[in-house]
Amino acid sequence: MSVTQQYLLDAYRAAQHGRPTPPAPGAHDWQAVREVRDYGRFRAVVAGRPARGRVRATLARLARGGRLSGGSVARTPRPLP
């Protein structure tokens, strides 16, 4: 069953029972994205990390040739072919 079919079925059932119809699919997508972003910022603050600029800082570190993890690992050179 597709999302649209489920929505139409739910709207039909709501009309039969005299209840308000549910919101259409996709009506609150941006609100959900904002809530996920805010939750991620909240968790960062609770963990003692900066709440903003984490993605940009990580991308800048990767562009400079850094690693994702903070630990240093000795690198061995690749053997020549």
Q: How many H/I helical runs?
A: 3
Question: Radius of gyration in whole Å, from Cα?
Answer: 24 Å
- Low-confidence segments, given as residue ranges, are none
Question: What characteristic shape results from the CA principal axes?
Answer: elongated
Distance between the termini: 55 Å
Mean pLDDT score: 83
Q: What structural class do helix, strand and pairing data support?
A: mainly alpha
Number of strands: 0
Q: Name the beta content range.
A: under 5%
Helical proportion, percent range: 40-55%
Main beta sheet: strand number and arrangement?
none
SSE ordering? HHH
Task: Characterise the protein shown here.
- The protein has 81 residues and is an all-alpha fold.
- It has a domain of 56 residues.
- Helix content is 53%, strand content 0%.
- The chain has three helices and no strands.
- The protein is elongated and about 70 Å long.
- The chain starts with a helix and ends in an 18-residue tail after the last helix.
Please specify the SSE layout and strand pairing.
Elements: H1 3-17, H2 29-46, H3 54-63
Keywords:
81 residues; mainly alpha; 3 helices; 53% helix; elongated
Brief summary of the model shown:
The chain is an all-alpha fold and 81 residues long. The chain contains three helices and no strands.
